[in-house]
């Protein structure tokens, strides 16, 4: 600001004061219309001129601030103009509030995003459970159908067993009657056999009598022959008696033969009746055993029928229960999906809120506020120039710095990658530049990333070899990793003069991230990221 302007203002206010108070005293000493209107005219002319000079001075200050983006402008010595002090205080106040807003929004997004991940897992699990329940319901439905079919078959088996039982009982009854009949017939045949034996004995007696009669008749005929004519009549009688005896003997023989046949037949019939009785008795015993088996079958089929009925009822209850659970799981899955979408919207809102706060802080950081973030931004421009020049020289030397063919490093967790220019990076002063900036400005990290978020060389503090311990490597071995999360992608692809971000690091720290682009022959290569905690 020009000193002449300040001198003019001082001179103006001095003359204005003298004139104003001089006219006022004249008007009080010599009251008249002339002195009154002179006082009014002075007020109407000098007051706007004073306001114009004040506004002109403030406008010159604001123009100077706008051009230099510096709220540390001094008006005289080391004193700042009240307007500059006021603006700087307000900008710093806004910056602090925007920092708090962005930090809390970043935390909120981190926790919402984690909740979204958990909710997604729970949604997938509930859908898997619901699918399993549906499959289980289908299986139980098949079991219910099979059980119903088994119940019908068990009923048929029970009825068949009852019918078989009835048939066996009827067979046993018939066999009992047959045994009784055979026993009666056997007794009758025994009686017949005994009677036939007696007849044979009687026939033997008759045969003996007949033989004796035949001998007596023969002797009588001989004696009659000896008697001559006197014995002829007796001889005739004797002959007839002998003939009768012979016929009787012959009949007796025939009857004896018949009786013997009857005896043999009777004996054979008795033997066959006894064998039939034994067979029928054995058949009855088998039938009784079969009856017992049918009793067991009836008991088992009845129990099976009862058990199958209980199973059918239980299966039906289980089917209804699973259908109810499946319906509840479907509603739960739909609710989880809705919650997931709501969380996504909340995460998007938190992210947008954080981005808006970051954009506002970026706007404020365009002015040199004199705070730590402003100093880092100012210093970062120098590092940006140095790193850009380093990469430009590498390109001129034929180093393949544009290689984006990331090759996975085996057995690295978290995953690391190799690119063709890593050997040059290891030999270059890049890490020294990063470490020097980190140490000088006491930041958490200072790193170079390509436009995809690939970080070839971290600060030496985080550039330890792979140990095989995932938790340790996550913190200590962070070189050659691809940070393609939302923050990493934005930092790598940023082409604006400055990008300000707040986020929660994968190691848990809340971080403020300043990044500037790296251009090589007007072609965007990536950017430099500087991270520091809000507390610092």
UniProtKB/TrEMBL annotation:
Q: What does the UniProt keyword field contain?
A: Membrane, Transducer, Transmembrane, Transmembrane helix
GO MF, one annotated term: transmembrane signaling receptor activity
Which residue intervals define the domain Methyl-accepting transducer in the entry?
97-333
GO BP annotations of the record are:
chemotaxis; signal transduction
Gene Ontology cellular component?
membrane
Instruction: Tell me which positions the record assigns to the signal sequence.
Output: none
Residues spanning the membrane = 9-30
Q: Extract the SMART domains matched here.
A: MA (SM00283)
Q: Which domain of life is it from?
A: Bacteria
Q: Which family does it belong to?
A: Belongs to the methyl-accepting chemotaxis (MCP) protein family.
Q: What's this protein's name? A: Methyl-accepting transducer domain-containing protein
Taxonomic source organism = SAR324 cluster bacterium
Lineage of the source organism?
Answer: Bacteria, Deltaproteobacteria, SAR324 cluster
């Amino acid at each position: 600001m020009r000193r002449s302007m300040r001198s003019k203002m001082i001179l103006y206010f001095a003359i204005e004061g003298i004139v104003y108070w001089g006219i006022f005293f004249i008007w009080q000493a010599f009251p008249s219309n002339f002195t009154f209107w002179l006082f009014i005219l002075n007020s109407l002319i000098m007051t706007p001129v004073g306001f114009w000079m004040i506004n002109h001075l403030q406008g010159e200050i604001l123009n100077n601030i706008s051009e230099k983006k510096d709220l540390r402008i001094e008006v005289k010595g080391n004193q700042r103009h009240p307007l500059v002090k006021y603006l700087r205080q307000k900008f710093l106040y806004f910056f602090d509030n925007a920092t708090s807003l962005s930090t809390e929004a970043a935390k909120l997004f981190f926790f919402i995003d984690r909740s979204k991940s958990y909710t997604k897992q729970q949604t997938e699990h509930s859908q898997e459970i619901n699918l399993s329940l549906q499959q289980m319901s289908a299986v139980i439905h098949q079991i219910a159908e099979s059980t119903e079919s088994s119940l019908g078959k068990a009923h048929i088996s029970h009825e068949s067993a009852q019918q078989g039982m009835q048939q066996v009982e009827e067979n046993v009854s018939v066999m009992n009657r047959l045994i009784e009949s055979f026993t009666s017939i056997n007794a009758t045949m025994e009686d017949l056999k005994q009677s036939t034996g007696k007849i044979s004995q009687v026939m033997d007696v008759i045969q003996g009598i007949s033989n004796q009669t035949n001998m007596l008749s023969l002797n009588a005929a001989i004696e009659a022959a000896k008697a001559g004519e006197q014995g002829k009549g007796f001889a005739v009688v004797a002959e007839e008696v002998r003939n009768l005896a012979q016929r009787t003997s012959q009949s007796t023989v025939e009857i004896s033969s018949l009786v013997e046949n009857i005896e043999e037949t009777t004996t054979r019939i008795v033997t066959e009746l006894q064998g039939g009785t034994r067979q029928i008795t054995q058949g009855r015993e088998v039938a009784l055993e079969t009856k017992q088996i049918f009793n067991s079958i009836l008991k088992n089929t009845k129990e099976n029928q009862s058990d199958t009925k209980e199973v059918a009822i239980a299966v039906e209850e289980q089917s209804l229960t699973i259908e109810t659970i499946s319906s509840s799981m479907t509603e739960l899955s739909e609710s989880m999906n809705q919650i997931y979408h709501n969380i996504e919207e909340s995460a998007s809102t938190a992210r947008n809120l954080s981005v808006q706060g970051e954009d506002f802080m970026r706007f404020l950081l365009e002015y040199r506020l004199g705070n730590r973030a402003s100093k880092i931004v100012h210093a970062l421009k120098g590092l940006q120039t140095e790193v850009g020049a380093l990469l430009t020289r590498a390109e001129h030397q034929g180093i393949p710095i544009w290689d984006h063919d990331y090759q996975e490093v085996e057995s690295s967790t978290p995953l690391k990658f190799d690119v063709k220019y890593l050997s040059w990076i290891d030999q270059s002063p890049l890490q020294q530049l990063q470490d020097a900036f980190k140490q000088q400005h006491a930041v958490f990290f200072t790193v170079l990333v390509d436009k995809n978020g690939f970080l070839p060389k971290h600060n030496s503090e985080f550039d330890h070899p792979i140990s095989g311990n995932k938790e340790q490597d996550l913190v200590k071995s962070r070189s050659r990793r691809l940070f393609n999360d939302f923050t990493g992608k934005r930092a790598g692809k940023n082409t604006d003069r400055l990008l300000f971000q707040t986020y929660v690091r994968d190691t848990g720290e809340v971080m403020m991230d300043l990044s500037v682009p790296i251009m090589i022959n007007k072609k965007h290569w990536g950017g430099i990221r500087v991270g520091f905690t809000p507390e610092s």
